[in-house]
Design goal:
- Pathway: Amino-acid biosynthesis; L-histidine biosynthesis; L-histidine from 5-phospho-alpha-D-ribose 1-diphosphate: step 1/9.
- One of its GO terms (biological process) is L-histidine biosynthetic process.
- It is an enzyme of class 2 (transferase).
- The protein has four domains: 80 residues, no CATH class; 147 residues, D-Maltodextrin-Binding Protein, domain 2, CATH 3.40.190; 100 residues, D-Maltodextrin-Binding Protein, domain 2, CATH 3.40.190; 79 residues, Alpha-Beta Plaits (2-Layer Sandwich).
- The protein is an alpha+beta fold.
- Helix 3 packs across helix 5 and helix 5 crosses helix 6.
- The chain is globular and about 95 Å long.
Length: 439
């Protein structure tokens, strides 16, 4: 049975620290510092006060999961009446949202979209929204609420990526842009999450196991398990993805391990002696190597990228929200598809549009998306043969081959233009969303 180790820094036993509890919406509630009239309370008073606050939180239906019980400094799991897992917490939040207890502060008819608040993912998300013509408008940079240009009744909330996953599952927000890894970790068991777009084109990484480079005899997951299967001490794993890690090891049939929870700088934990291995996100692998760690074969838990997700219940009951979700999806789809295409325009001599079409048919990449567009050009005075202009959309990677083929059939004046959007006849992703919602 896997255990969960509480780091020393998670303890709040010292006077003057700020314990925290996890509310039903997933947000942290900071407790006031335990000081009075400039003097510290006695240890007995602190313990008694902390116990009273814990009981008060439980009696008021405050959700405290395993990790948060540790952060309160108790070192014990939450009350039996409180959810023991993130999935149960999400389920409780979803139930509360239906009753309106989580949404008391929301005005009638207001929809909510949550996006990352800081860092590279925030910058990429803002750039995507701008590229699809739905610019983010922030009236006060110190606030965490904004709006999208020309979109009525939609609040945009800037949140931590992990909180976005929780709050979409709970129904605190209707739509969210966050990583698949965080959705799987914090809301993976929730039936309230609907994936609207599975890959927004940025934030690609994977969750994998990193072991010390000095372990030359361990290069596969099976070798790691064999090394620790009957070891007297469990394998210590530094991670912040305990739910995904627990499911991964359960599927592999490995149980002699325990998690050491860390928020960041996991790569340093093996050299510090805090953990034996790490389970963390990897993009290029450079950070792993610079900290004397290596990946092992079979140690990848899941692939991740940024996604657009929605709350199932809210989509099912709100037509305006369905409209916003569909427009956002189709704009993103069209932008991503268009970003990989070029529009080619060229002149070709020919006696008729049919002859020009037959010339184009000889090429391998000159058919365009649904066929080329051919239109007549008024020929210069004195020319016996007509001139036609052709236009076609091709993938960027085929650009030079297309130019060569156009030259081979008499093409000239080839112009290459960027493509902003490509809207297809219908959105297959939206059709999938409607089927998932049973609309």
């Amino acid at each position: 049975m896997a255990a969960f180790v509480t780091p020393v820094w998670a303890s709040s036993a010292s006077v003057g620290t700020t314990p925290r509890t996890l509310g039903a919406s997933g947000s942290c509630v900071l407790r006031p510092r335990l000081r009075s009239a400039g003097r510290c309370r006695s240890r007995a008073g602190v313990s008694r006060l902390r116990g009273e606050r814990m009981r008060s939180a439980m009696e008021s239906d405050t959700v405290v999961d395993k990790a948060d019980a540790h952060s309160l400094g108790t070192g014990a799991p939450a009350s039996p009446s409180a959810p023991a897992t993130v999935a149960e917490s999400a389920a409780l939040g979803a139930a509360e949202s239906k009753n309106g207890s989580v949404r008391e502060g929301r005005k009638e008819g207001i929809m909510r979209l949550a996006i990352p608040s800081k860092g590279g993912m925030a910058d990429e998300t803002k750039a995507l929204l701008k590229a699809v013509g739905m610019d983010l408008v922030i009236s006060n940079p110190r606030q965490y609420i904004a709006k999208l240009r020309d979109v009525e009744n939609l609040e945009v909330w800037l949140q931590r990526p992990s909180d976005i996953a929780r709050k979409v599952a709970n129904g605190d927000v209707d739509l969210g842009i966050t990583g698949h890894d965080l959705i799987a970790e914090y809301a993976g068991m929730s039936q309230e999450i609907v994936t609207v777009h599975e890959d927004l084109g940025f934030g690609a990484c994977h969750l994998g196991i990193g072991v010390p480079m000095g372990w030359s005899h361990i290069n596969t997951i099976d070798e790691l398990f064999a090394e620790y299967a009957n070891a007297p001490e469990p394998l210590r794993i530094a991670t912040k993805f305990s739910n995904l890690g627990e499911r991964f090891f359960a599927e592999k049939g490995f149980s002699n391990y325990r998690f050491v929870y860390m928020d960041g700088a996991l790569e340093a934990s093996t050299q510090m002696g805090t953990a034996d291995i790490i389970l963390d996100l990897v993009s290029s692998g450079v950070t792993l190597r610079e900290n004397l760690l290596k990946e092992i074969s079979g140690g990848m838990v899941l692939q991740s990228t940024m996604q657009l997700v929605a709350n199932r219940t809210e989509l099912q009951k709100s037509k305006p929200l369905l409209g916003v979700a569909r427009e956002l999806l189709e704009r993103i789809e069209a932008h991503i598809l268009g970003a990989d295409q070029y529009n080619l325009i060229a002149n070709i001599r020919g006696a008729s549009p049919g002859e020009v079409a037959r010339k184009l048919a000889k090429g391998t990449v000159l058919r365009g998306m649904d066929g080329p567009t051919i239109s007549m050009v008024i020929p210069p005075q004195g020319m016996d043969e007509g001139m036609y202009a052709i236009a076609l959309v091709i993938p960027k990677r085929l650009l030079y081959r297309a130019v060569q083929e156009l030259r081979s059939i008499g093409g000239s004046g080839v112009c290459v233009l960027p493509v902003t959007y490509v809207f297809e006849a219908e959105s297959k992703r939206w059709n999938q969303v409607e089927r998932a919602l049973e609309l």
